[in-house]
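Researcher: I'm preparing a figure for a lab meeting and need a structural model of a single chain. I don't have an experimental structure, so a prediction will have to do for now. The sequence is pasted below. Please return the structure as tokens so I can convert it later.
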Amino acid sequence: MKDNSLVTLSKSFSVDIIKLCEDLLHKNKSMAIVNQLLRSGTSIGANVHEGNYAASRADFINKFQIALKECYETSYWLEVFRDAAIIGAAEFETFFAKCSKIRKLLIASITTAKEKADS
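Model: Understood. Here is the structure written out token by token.
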């Protein structure tokens, strides 16, 4: 697999999400909603990784589209956590900015892959 910013950023984001969720669980926050963030936040990187080993361009696009959906879900959970005062505004901004950057890279990758598929 080639090293690129999306792979690196999504893996780093997964590690950060794991650490955040572990911290929240130690603070006795609701396991059910923390698990939602954990699952969606780590799924992004897993699908990016899997997409880089795709059997076809269509498979690559599919994995990256799943990663994009998980990215949108993660953004939602981060907003809920902020609004419910489970995480602070500064922590929210840090995670949301990283998630937004991943989302932009995913959209660009999907768009490029679709354009190449059409040509």
